[in-house]
Every structure is written in C-alpha cells, then in structure tokens.
Design a protein that fits this description.
By secondary structure, this protein is of the alpha/beta class. It is built from eleven helices and ten strands. The two termini are 34 Å apart.
Length: 314
C-alpha cells in the first residue's frame, strides 16, 4: 500500500487511551499510515502536527523505496526511546520478517503498541512466527493482501493456523489490503466507485464469514481518492454493513469523514441498550423493529462500543 506524502493540516485533537490489556479494534478508529522515512516522523509521533488521529502506523514496507529502508529504520531507532504514552496508538509495519527481528531488538520498542504484518497467508505465517518475540506483549495486525486471500480454503487454513500458533490473544484485528488485492486483479477502481463496486465485494464478504465467527475483527481497506468525500462516506457505510470497523486512512482529511460515520444514531443506541438490558424480554419490539437479545447481542455490544468511542450522530 502506498502512502501519499502530505502536509498535515487538520484540526488538532487528543485522544486519551485505555490501557493495552483492554484495547479493542474499535479504538483504532481511522488508522493513518505514515512512511517511516518522513523527516518529520518524530513530530508526527509526538503529536506535534495538527491533525486528529487515534492510531498511527509507521510504514517500512510499500510506502518506501528499498533505498529508503535503512534511513527509515535509523529514524525509528532514534525515535523509539523518546516515545511517551497517552496521545495515540502507534504501530510499525515491518517490511519483512528480518526487519521485524531488527525492530524487536531496538531500544524503546516496548513504547509502541504493536506491529502490522504485511502479506500474510498460510505459507508466510511461519516466517513471521520465527521472527516474533512476545516479551513486550505487542499487538499484531496481519494484513490479508496476497493471492491466497482470494481462496476461501486458504483463508480457512490461515484461520486455523493462527489458532494453533498461540497468537490468537495478540491479534487486535486482521487488515484487508484492498489496493494490493486489486493490483493482483489488474484493476483500479473508478473515481465514483467504492471497494464494493469491484470484485472485492465478494472477497470481503468471504473474509467476514470466515474470520468473524472465530472472533477476529476485520478492518476496512484504504480509500485512495482524496477529492471524493461523498464516495468515501458511502464506502464507510458499506464497511459498517459488512461488520468492518477501523479503516486505513492515507491522509488526515479522511479521518473526520470516516469517524463521523462511526458515530451511532440515537435509534441504534436505544435499541442496543434495550437488547443488552439484563431484564430484557426474549423477544420485543422497539421503534418498529423486532429485537431478540439472543441473536442481536453481539451487534448491540458493538454499537455501544462505537458510541463510547466515537459518540452519537447529530
């Protein structure tokens, strides 16, 4: 995934984070990818740039040319010991397992929340596991973006291997690499098209059906157009309908659009609260809608968590 170099200029907001053991994928919000080669990386990491973000991902993979890798790793090595907690969640996307191994040996690596692991599939998982070191309790976000992602059986195998690996409790969410998957198809979406207007609609549906019942969260792919906010808004609505929360952003201007659509309507909030009421009837009607706590409980819990994190729609 490429990231557009920009000047950050949105309004500044601080988010106060809960402790790592209680972290959920919902708290990621719109995760902003930042090339680790940026000369202002330290300012961005310390919140000295004027933009609101709940989670940052410092990228050493597709966002960098090979010649930029060593300078980027040197920047991270200088930055990590200085990081303080409490402003935003911070993750690193290593280029490959060798880079992950180097990062895990850096002073201050315990100051980040975790790693985004690119190009994950059943065959690549073992290479990442051999480089992995869980001494600091980092979270992991594997990215589904290889040819295997199109094969339901391969994704079912990956799900099972993740379970067998012992990483289940360390996986914050699985990220869907939309642009990499479209590249494998030789497709680039039209200007007015959401990701659900492409062949990836079926792929995303399959991933939801494979991983959600096993308890994994999935985040939504990047929207690469910066001048089509109305299409981005439509895509976020479709993300939510597919159960995806936590969308990759490539520019700060996308963050408020994404997170505005994560806000919860009053009707949904009231319905979710009623579903989770300890003394709720087994079946009841509210706002003209049939409610059954036994089957709507997981949806309701997600709605209340979104309301807590992003607030109510106005």
């Amino acid at each position: 995934m490429s990231v557009i170099p920009v000047d950050f200029c949105a309004s500044h907001t601080h988010f106060y984070l809960e402790s790592a053991p209680t972290l959920s994928a919902t708290q990621l919000g719109a995760s902003l990818y930042v090339p680790a080669s940026r000369p202002d990386l330290a300012m961005i990491a310390h919140g000295q740039k004027a933009f609101p973000v709940r989670s940052l991902i410092f990228c050493t993979e597709d966002a960098l040319h090979e010649r930029e890798l060593e300078p980027a790793l040197n920047r991270l090595a200088a930055l990590l010991p200085e990081l303080k907690t409490g402003w935003s969640l911070r993750f690193i996307r290593p280029r490959n397992p060798s880079v992950l191994r180097r990062l895990l040996r850096m002073n201050g690596i315990e100051h980040i929340q975790g790693f985004v692991l690119p190009k994950i599939g059943p065959r690549a998982l073992g290479n990442w596991l051999r480089a992995w070191d869980d001494r600091y309790g980092h979270w992991l976000m594997p990215v589904l973006e290889t040819p295997e992602t199109f094969d339901r059986r391969q994704m079912e195998t990956l799900r099972d291997r993740l379970e067998d690996s012992g990483l289940r409790e360390r996986i914050l969410c699985l990220r869907i690499g939309g642009n990499d998957l479209l590249n494998l198809l030789g497709i680039r979406r039209a200007r007015n098209a959401t990701i659900y207007d492409t062949p990836l609609r079926g792929v995303i549906s399959d991933l939801v059906c494979i991983f959600h019942p096993a308890g994994y969260s999935l985040s939504a792919p990047v929207f690469e157009r910066l001048d089509m906010p109305e299409v981005l808004a439509r895509e976020v609505d479709a993300d939510l309908q597919h159960g995806l929360v936590g969308k990759t952003a490539i520019h700060p201007m996308q963050i408020p659009i994404i997170e505005k659509h994560y806000q919860v309507s009053q009707e949904d909030y009231e319905m979710a609260a009623a579903v989770l009421e300890p003394n709720a009837a087994a079946v009841f009607k509210l706002n003209g809608t049939f409610c059954e706590p036994a089957t709507h409980q997981r949806w309701a819990a997600g709605i209340l968590e979104r309301a807590k994190t992003f607030g109510m729609a106005t």
